[in-house]
Specification:
The protein is of the alpha+beta class and 260 residues long. It has a single domain, classed as Transferase(Phosphotransferase), domain 1, CATH 1.10.510. It has helices at 12-22, 44-58, 63-89, 130-157, 161-179, 186-202, 214-217, and strands at residues 24-25, 36-37, 100-103, 106-107, 110-111, 114-117, 223-225, 228-232. The strands form three sheets. It has a four-stranded mixed beta sheet. A hairpin with a 2-residue loop joins strand 4 and strand 5. Helix 1 runs antiparallel to helix 3, helix 2 packs across helix 4 (130-157) and helix 3 (63-89) packs antiparallel against helix 4. It is globular, with a radius of gyration of 18 Å. This is Aerobactin siderophore biosynthesis IucA/IucC-like C-terminal domain-containing protein. GO terms for molecular function: 2 iron, 2 sulfur cluster binding; catalytic activity. InterPro entries: IucA/IucC-like_C. Residues 68-201 form the Aerobactin siderophore biosynthesis IucA/IucC-like C-terminal domain.
Length: 260
């Protein structure tokens, strides 16, 4: 059995880290135009209306580009606080689809929405049961949330699920390879390394609600390119960022469409 902690098990200092660095919030945003319950993204009518609204934020007439860029933000809202709590604090947030909402928020001109969870109770692994507990935490945020949203959005907007999943995977790589280790203790770093290795290589597809583990699928070898001083993963799909804003962008440095 997975041990449940009390309602205040997420310590104030832990919540502050998740709020400051990973956009978790307790507060409803006054901007309801671009705030929406997670579960509403499963409704084609509601999700497409929402995407029409946020297209102005991304300065694009392309619905596919809007959905792709929104998917990056949504993936971050689900996995960044969820994976950090799991690996750094050894605590599992309830990131079930029915438990959260997107709360519109800006930092300067940038739209950086936050995730508000109705139930902030955290779970902890029972003694000697971290592997089983970790599976449940991963399954809730990926198979129980992201997979359902990506399936619904892919059908409603006609966008590739592979693109949506690669948008998700790139954040997993960045968070574990760059972000999470900042100010982490040796114990936390060891747990992060173990969890990342599990997500990359060993986590079964069922935890993601997919026939294949998408984090493993998009983990291509890093290569040197003319655009980067350090080796990078070249994406398998284009995220369509070049279609945003009035001034056309070049392809991203990791884009497969870029001439190398």
């Amino acid at each position: 059995m997975m041990k449940k902690t009390t309602d205040n098990s997420l310590q104030p200092e832990e919540f502050e880290v998740l709020a400051a660095d990973y956009r978790l919030t307790r507060d409803s945003s006054p901007d309801r135009s671009f705030s929406i319950p997670f579960a509403d993204l499963l409704d084609p009518e509601k999700s497409l209306a929402y995407f029409r609204g946020v297209s102005g934020i991304f300065e694009t007439d392309s619905e596919l580009a809007t959905v792709s860029l929104f998917a990056k933000r949504y993936a971050f809202l689900v996995i960044a606080p969820g994976l950090y709590a799991m690996s750094a604090f050894n605590k599992g947030l309830n990131l079930a689809l029915e438990n959260g909402s997107i709360e519109s928020s800006y930092q300067g001109q940038a739209w950086l929405p936050k995730a508000r969870l109705l139930d902030l109770e955290a779970s902890e692994p029972g003694e000697g049961q971290r592997s089983e507990w970790r599976d449940r935490v991963i399954e809730t945020m990926f198979a129980g949330n992201l997979s359902r949203v990506w399936n619904a959005v892919s059908k409603a907007a006609g966008i590739s699920k592979a693109l949506l999943w690669e948008n998700t995977a790139i954040y997993v790589y960045w968070l574990y390879e760059k972000k999470f280790a900042e100010a982490a203790s040796p114990e936390q770093k060891q747990r992060m390394e173990e969890d990342y290795r599990y997500l990359l290589y060993d986590a079964p597809p069922r935890l993601f609600g997919e026939p294949r583990n998408p984090i493993k699928k998009f983990n291509s070898p890093k290569v040197f390119t003319a655009e980067s001083a350090n080796p990078i993963r070249v994406r398998k799909t284009c995220c369509l960022y070049y279609l945003t804003s009035d001034t056309p962008h070049d392809y991203c440095s990791t884009c497969p469409k870029r001439n190398r």
